[in-house]
Amino acid sequence: MPLSGQTTPGGPPLLGIDVGGTNIKAAVVDAGGVVRGHGSVPTEQELGPGAGLDRIEAAANAALEDAGVGLWDVAAVGLATPGPMNLKAGTLLCPSNLPGWQNWAIREAVEARFSKPTTLQNDANAAAYGEYWSGAGRDADSLVLWTLGTGIGCGIILRDAVIEGEHSHGSECGHIIIDCRPDARVHPGTGMRGTLEAYCGARGVIARARDALNVDRGQSAMHERLAGGAKLTPKLICEVAAEGDELALGILTETAQLLGVGTVSILHTIDPDCVLLAGAMTFGGPGTTTGDLFLDTLRLEVKRRAFPTVAEHLDVSFAGLGADAGVVGAAGCARRAFAG
């Protein structure tokens, strides 16, 4: 279906919507991948999909108003949501972040509400496409994006194609097995042992830090912080690591090394141009001592483990779009689906 609507430089604008468990974010995105207007509302997911559709519309209206355009100007709508989902049917299956939204035909509902052609994409895949289209991966032909947070999300783009898998479960690389020992850590959500997410997701990092503190004999500054009422979180680990605490620095570097192990498995499978890191679990991110240490440690681990001919052509960097990656990528997926 060709795009239609009032044109902006390069073509008509798109509407990207990123549905999360806490907030629904929307953006009007021009044909070059630049955000022209934002909107955000609480998801209130406990009210169910009917109310959720109203919240999606509210976020979209806020973005349209911010951009100074009307819905009639928009060519298409792109949705990004947590999985699992059936992308061919446009249906959410049993998203853990959106309880009560099971088996909801969200794409059809949004398409009917807005009277616009609509796409549905996994949120990590959408973020990856956003970086590929107009972010840190815009000069690459292929990329892997890690989204590091409570869980470990992954999106893979190969020559403008989103790797979705035959049953909509492609790129679920947070569940790569990195530890095959019988006593490997158990993922609290899936029950699987030894997965990357069990070690490098926020809960895994906290569990590893707690284990280290239990044998530390009071040497780490984290003991004093915790005794003073602080909560053991990745943020606390990052703060104490920035102060030079040996235990916290060990957790940071081990997390980067383990992520490197998972990354190399992907590199040897698809041989991408670049690997990008995004999310709250990048230990401060770009421009911080801890963030740079995390990135450098990951790079070294990848270089140590990957085939030299793979590693020498690879760029490992932080992502560039921040919180806009999901909405930009959702809009980009809609543009890709309906252009021409």
Automatic annotation (TrEMBL):
GO molecular function per UniProt: glucokinase activity
Keyword Transferase: yes
EC number(s) reported in the record: 2.7.1.2
Flavoprotein among keywords: no
Entry keywords, A to Z: Kinase, Transferase
SUPFAM superfamilies: Actin-like ATPase domain
InterPro entries, per the entry: ATPase_NBD (IPR043129), ROK (IPR000600)
Similarity comment: Belongs to the ROK (NagC/XylR) family.
Descriptive protein name: Glucokinase
The species this protein was found in: Alienimonas californiensis
UniProt lineage: Bacteria, Pseudomonadati, Planctomycetota, Planctomycetia, Planctomycetales
